[in-house]
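Query structure, 170 tokens:
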């Protein structure tokens, strides 16, 4: 009886979409929490993002893969178009978004309501980053790195190395 109910269990698949330009320790914190809550988490980088970024999509994906290599139920991907369409394509009905501060809330609320209006079967789950990561953003990290500062407290080791290898060549 027990084995039958396990076989029929629907996997809880969550999508964690974002720019990840680059992934920070705050993003990783949210990803780890999500991986503990759901059967599978697909962290997905938006391609052709209107936000002008620094890293090419392939590099963002490669860095996330390296940073998340110890999380067995995490898959790393990139996508185009609407997040809800990508989620449907992947059989996911949960979107993960991280919240750092109240200032994130208005935009996130609007986006989740819009997504819910377009795809009522998809629920956004907000995860709050630990206080020690609440002030980190990819843009401030880039600003510090471009000016030659040390960002090792804010981003995974592979991102520190990426900045060392790539910033001088910009
Ligand atoms: O890391 P970001 O830049 O805050 O992530 C924003 C992202 C990529 C999740 C959001 O812009 C998005 O979902 N874009 C895909 C297009 C889409 O679905 N737009 C509708 C949202 S209302």
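Result returned for the query:
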């Amino acid at each position: 009886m027990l084995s039958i109910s396990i076989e029929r269990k629907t996997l809880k698949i969550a999508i964690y979409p974002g720019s990840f330009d680059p992934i920070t320790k705050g993003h990783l914190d949210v990803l780890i929490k999500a991986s503990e809550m759901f059967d599978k988490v697909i962290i997905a980088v938006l391609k052709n993002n209107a936000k002008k970024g620094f890293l090419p999509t392939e590099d963002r994906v490669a860095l996330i893969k390296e940073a998340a290599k110890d999380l067995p139920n995490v898959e790393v991907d990139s996508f185009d178009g609407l997040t809800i369409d990508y989620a449907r394509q992947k059989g996911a009905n949960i979107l993960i978004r991280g919240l750092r501060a109240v200032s994130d809330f208005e935009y996130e609320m609007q986006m989740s309501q819009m997504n819910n209006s377009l795809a009522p079967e998809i629920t956004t789950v907000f995860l709050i980053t630990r206080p020690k990561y609440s002030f980190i953003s990819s843009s401030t990290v880039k600003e510090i790195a471009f000016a030659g500062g040390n960002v090792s407290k804010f981003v995974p080791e592979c991102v520190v190395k990426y900045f060392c290898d790539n910033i001088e060549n910009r």
